[in-house]
Amino acid sequence: NAGVTQTPKFQVLKTGQSMTLQCAQDMNHEYMSWYRQDPGMGLRLIHYSVGAGITDQGEVPNGYNVSRSTTEDFPLRLLSAAPSQTSVYFCASSFTDFGGAEQYFGPGTRLTVT
Amino acid sequence: GENVEQHPSTLSVQEGDSAVIKCTYSDSASNYFPWYKQELGKGPQLIIDIRSNVGEKKDQRIAVTLNKTAKHFSLHITETQPEDSAVYFCAASIFHPSTPTGDGAGGGADGLTFGKGTHLIIQP
């Protein structure tokens, strides 16, 4: 199994541009989530999904959209990039809910918005 | 919502000594407390977790203790080795069986709430 994969690994955007961060998992996990990691801030939940067709907001959802059309994929869309969205983004998946299952994290996407 | 405080932000110990990282949480409903290790350039990886019905759990050189009354939990690493150098994150989970509704029930997001991390440095 490849586990959780993320593309791209690095990305530079100009303010106002849009882009999609890709995330895929091959473990047949129902739960998938997106986090952003900023220095001194830990990991903060952006959006999550408990299954295909079901998504919900996390702690910091503004400026991001998600969809879950398949079990395997959970893309994160930046609608109009802002410098405040410069961060490292991690996708994670788990077999069941957050309250008891290991989260498997991808390798991350480092995004810089200029 | 849940708030997780983690201390210290940086911890330097001599190889072979023990390291302790402490976390406190705010929501007494939290019942799952994992610890993640993040090596440079990689995503976090679970190293140990504990549920609220257990006071202590060990896995070789790593142990976690939980005090529900005081709402704090700690990671203990004994006989530290150079490969233990990394950033460690504690987390707490508020599990609502009826999720997701998106209606803000509970006043915050569902999912893991992470501490801000501890950079553990093992001095040779």
Keywords, separated by commas or semicolons:
heterodimer; A: 114 residues; mainly beta; seven-stranded mixed sheet; four-stranded antiparallel sheet; 0% helix; B: 124 residues; 11 strands; 52% strand
Describe this structure in words.
The complex is a heterodimer of chains A (114) and B (124). Chain A is mainly β. Chain A has strands at 4-7, 10-13, 19-25, 31-38, 42-51, 54-57, 64-66, 76-78, 87-94, 104-105, 109-113. In chain A, the strands form two sheets. In chain A, strands 2, 4, 5, 6, 9, 10 and 11 form a seven-stranded mixed β-sheet that branches. In chain A, strands 1-3-8-7 form a four-stranded antiparallel β-sheet, with no helix packed on it. Chain A is globular. By secondary structure, chain B is mainly beta. Chain B has no helices and eleven strands. Chain B has strands spanning 4-7, 10-14, 19-25, 32-38, 45-51, 56-59, 62-67, 72-77, 86-94, 111-114, 118-123. In chain B, the strands form two sheets. In chain B, strands 2, 4, 5, 9, 10 and 11 form a six-stranded mixed β-sheet that branches. In chain B, strand 6 and strand 7 (62-67) form a beta hairpin. Chain B is globular and about 40 Å long. Chain A binds chain B through residues 4, 33, 35, 40-45, 48, 50, 54-59, 90, 92, 97-100, 102-103, 105-108, and chain B through 1, 6, 9, 31-32, 34, 36, 41-46, 49, 51, 89, 93-95, 99-102, 108-117.
